[in-house]
């Protein structure tokens, strides 16, 4: 008889914000309960960073400081025995390579599974929603825009509205109802400009789901990332 078990310890680099980290915690535990059975939860650690400190560094363009904080978190998780380490924020993947260099473990990239899903669906035009820092990063095009796929982003005014929603509301309060309207408008805009699907490339945006978005598929990067993490920490054994 073949059954799955967790064979590799997971470390989450969280706190960016704690609300999306809580979403990872809940979804990862639910995924393992589904795979392994009732009352099962993941074995691992969470290194919860001070988001205010990271934002202060970002405001000062202290990118080396951000890199050092993320890399240190990866090193500490590796020393605690974590063999798989995950960044729980899309923007933090700007420092994916330094984080990988800080550990000998596996670091599943949050956009790998989303890119694979776009390939599987045969998508030629994909809309991308995330922070302006994420959407302006090379790694988004490297992963989601591979091949000849066209990526569609919001215009400056729409992006400013989404940035405000993410940073001033979703990461700072539980008042998310108004944010659903912002997300619906953003999705509709990308759809109007030709997007066949929309990638939610921000780990706060799934907090707004579900929304009414007829005629278009939304790819939830957190859900896809959780699936990818499970593939790295679970393996089959013969009982």
Summarize the structure.
With 239 residues, the chain is an alpha/beta fold. 49% of the residues lie in helices and 17% in strands. The strands form three sheets. Strands 6-5-7-8 form a four-stranded parallel β-sheet, with helices on both faces.
Dominant shape: globular
Tell me, rounded to a whole number, the average pLDDT: 94
Q: Number of DSSP strands?
A: 9
Structural class: alpha/beta
Gap from first CA to last CA: 5 Å
Uncertain ranges:
none
Helix-strand topology string: EEHEHHEHHEHHEHHEEHE
Word description of this protein:
- The chain has 239 residues and is of the alpha/beta class.
- It folds into 2 domains: 2-109 and 225-238, Rossmann fold (3-Layer(aba) Sandwich), CATH 3.40.50.1860; 112-222, Rossmann fold, CATH 3.40.50.
- Helix content is 49%, strand content 17%.
- The chain is built from 10 helices and 9 strands.
- It has helices spanning 18-36, 51-59, 63-79, 96-101, 112-121, 132-135, 138-144, 156-170, 177-192, 221-233; strands at residues 2-6, 10-14, 44-48, 84-87, 125-129, 150-152, 197-200, 217-220, 234-238.
- The strands form 3 sheets. Strands 6-5-7-8 form a 4-stranded parallel β-sheet, sandwiched between helices. Strands 3-2-4 form a 3-stranded parallel β-sheet, sandwiched between helices. Strands 1-9 form a two-stranded antiparallel sheet.
- Helix 1 crosses helix 10 (221-233).
- The longest helix is centred in the N-terminal third of the chain and has 19 residues, at 18-36.
- The radius of gyration is 18 Å and the shape is globular.
- GO terms for molecular function: amino-acid racemase activity.
- InterPro entries: Asp/Glu/hydantoin_racemase, Asp/Glu_race, Asp/Glu_racemase_AS_2.
- Pfam families: Asp_Glu_race.
